[in-house]
Prior knowledge:
0% strand; 29 helices; ABC transporter involved in vitamin B12 uptake, BtuC; single chain; mainly alpha
Amino acid sequence: MAVIEKTAVGRDDSAAAMTGAVAVTATLVLLVMVLAAVDITQGTADVGASEVWNALTGNAAAGDSSVVIASRLPRMAAAVLVGLALGMAGAALQAVSRNVLASPDTLAVNAGSYLALGVLAATGTTLPLLASSGAAFVGGLSAAAVVLGVSGLGKGSVRLVLAGSALMLGLNAVTEALLLLFPQQTEGLYRWNQGSVGQNGFDGVSQMAPVIAAGLLGLLLVARRIDALALGDDAARGLGVPVRGTRVTTVVLATLLSAAAVTIAGPIGFVGLCAPALVRPLTRRFRGLSRSRVSLPVAGLVGAALVLVSDVVLRAVVPADTAVEVPTGVVTTVVGGVFVVVMALRTRDTAAAEAPDRLRIPGRKAFLATVVALAVVLVGLLVAAVLLGDSKLLLGDVVNWAQGRAGRIVTFVLDTRVPRVSAALLAGGALALSGTLVQAVTRNPLAEPGVLGVSGGAGLGAVLLVTTAHAPGSWAVAGAAFGGAAVTASLVFGLAARGGFRQNRLVLLGIGISSAASALISLVIVLSDPFDTTKALTWLSGSTYGRTMPDSMPVAVALAIGIVLAVVRRRELDLVALDEDTPRLLGLGLPRARLGFLVVAVLLAATAVAAAGTIAFVGLVAPHAARALVGRRHVRVVPVALMLGAVLVCLADLAGRTVIAPAQLGAGLMTAVIGAPYFVYLLVRTRR
């Protein structure tokens, strides 16, 4: 009798769980339908609900019918399909990697797809939509394979996000280089990369719908195997589930869904991250949602609702004629950035940030030999940077120019080239010193101004001024950059300080705020005048083009202040980088010391961005290489890092304006292409 009662209770619980799951699913379906109905009624044309209904029933006027059928219905259908695909892709990736931060964004799937389509556009290759989707699929799958391989199939939230962010920066740098080199062939690609669900007819939607349906069906077929993976690899093998095959199949299907979504609307950021996260609390309340065959479609519905909400809110808040220009992906990326920040604050991080470098104290002779060698390299590179370019000069030309006896052509060339070289040298040194200070204060070997959102905030402040003010001065641009950097730095470091600058929290906060800043930069660029757009894109690529000597003055002043502080406070810097307890035992006010060093680091990064645009990874590579060469004492690290940073940026600037002369590439693109593999190498090395 007791057994019968237990069986009956179990059946009742199972029925209740399924009833709850059905209720949640029905509610989400209703929500998506309501949002879709509202989305159809919005737009620039005066077509309301009655006109839409008449168009659907065939009773509308010709103009109203064409607007609804050719524009609004395809836009709504694209939003639903893209949301479904990204929501399910994110849920599947998080399930097989057992990592709540896995998504098409953090696995660089979108960046890989963007690069593949950029290559097709730059080479003038015209393919049908399905073939373009295939190219995007190959690019996204390759990027995901690299990220999952480096992060150990997603083990460790920070490692996966860092690997994905680094690879994304490198791939986007290559794509942006193609945009600058082939502006006519890639026209409109930058705007497309921000993610817009706007459509011209049903062609794209109708061709990608079967692909998305196949991906969804494939995930449902392997849903039980995905559930088995949640029990652990050993338990799954005990149940006869092929662990590696299931993971590979799931990643391939998720990438297929992401590639299809990218083909329809471009990269719509963070939907694949937010949708599964919103479903997780529901699974704890409704046990019927815990099974993948139920939770995956529910995550897809949440993704569709997120995309529709973003589109509806955008066109409700922004004037209709302006909303047409604003990509939906900008809204989802800003929301996603805030979402990552919230997740970072809720993430438990039990490991303190520690410097991974082994204690190494090279002798004085080794240090001096390193400094002399770097000085020789720097001088040689400086000479080469001044002499080489689209016009090659001789040392005698430079001497005559310095004495005021050069010809008009030589004078013009050197008047434009010398300020560029000066800006590159100073920006490189400033970024290297900024990275050194940030890594010391946070005791985080992966911290640098770009990863932590400081450069993104500086870029946002500068772009706002560059695109709105007429011919702003160098000090005004530097001030705007410092203002933006100060805001983002206050958010990142202020929130991270509560946990003692724990590694996970600090990095996740930086990436979340950096993503939001990048989306806002894209919004400003998209809404600005086309002339200002080209100017802002060139500047954001880390270009020193058009720089004058006054433009370098703010970064020169900031660098002088930073060097003096680092030299005078070198022992305090060593103590801050050591641990939490030793500085306090020796009477050092740790919070005040940290704040002072961080303010100077932000000032250095902001003025460097104002002088040379956003240049990635210099603040990471230079301090790492300096510590590898001369140990951890900052009296030695600072000068070596300064010279290494100057060498890196100057070399990148020289290569960018000589390798494909007369065309030019920004130094920031070159350092991203070089720095991304180095960053991935550091992750592989520390994986042990």
